[in-house]
Design brief:
Length: 196
């Protein structure tokens, strides 16, 4: 028994709209999209660096703990920090590329393309609302730790280095959801103009 993967663009119904133009050359994009492409590249590199650093840190800890019998206690602080940054940077990349898990059930239930697009727009709006809500509480928590001046136990690093991974993640996810909503509204308007 084999399972076939169906890309979201191949599902029944209208194609998914992406806020970021994919195949257009960088020279053909506007200044905004060229700057966004640079931001996306920085995010991707930071995600790879934090993930690889976490892997090297864990491997070094194994060698130090079992080979040299001298574990590095700071790993208990550094590993979660690197994992948080990798996780939230990955969330930003997935939001930018619209790579979240999505199903085609709406297109199976409804045949009206405009209704399907409206439902997708409402979904993007709900995601933006959730990201803003979580981002608010993440910022509140980060500022609370910042005001207290809390530091980690072993490394004595400021705790907000951990907390701001959430803040940066939610802010940039909100930014990309705003772009997505704008693209979906434009697509919806273009679809209605073509029908008239």
């Amino acid at each position: 028994m084999s399972i076939e993967y169906t890309h979201p663009d191949e599902l029944i119904g209208p194609t998914f709209v992406k806020a970021i133009p994919g195949d257009a050359g960088i020279q053909q994009r506007s200044l905004f999209f060229r700057m966004e492409a640079q931001l996306a590249q920085i995010i991707s590199v930071a995600m790879v660096i934090s993930t690889m650093s976490l892997g090297f840190l864990m491997a070094a800890q194994v060698v130090m703990r079992y080979g040299l019998e001298s574990p590095f206690l700071g790993i208990e602080e550094l590993a979660p920090m690197l994992a948080l940054w990798a996780y939230f940077l990955g969330m930003i990349c997935a939001t930018r590329d619209q790579d979240h898990i999505s199903g085609g059930i709406v297109a199976l239930l409804f045949e009206n393309e405009t209704l399907i697009k409206v439902i997708r727009l409402v979904g993007s709006g709900a995601c933006l609302l959730a990201v803003c809500l979580f981002g608010y509480f993440a910022l509140k928590f980060a500022l609370f730790n910042f005001d207290l001046g809390r530091k980690s136990v072993y490394m004595r690093w400021p705790k907000y280095l951990w907390d701001f991974s959430m803040v940066v993640g939610f802010i940039l996810m909100g930014f990309y959801y705003c772009l997505q909503i704008i693209a979906e509204v434009r697509d919806l308007k273009n679809g209605q103009n073509n029908n008239t």
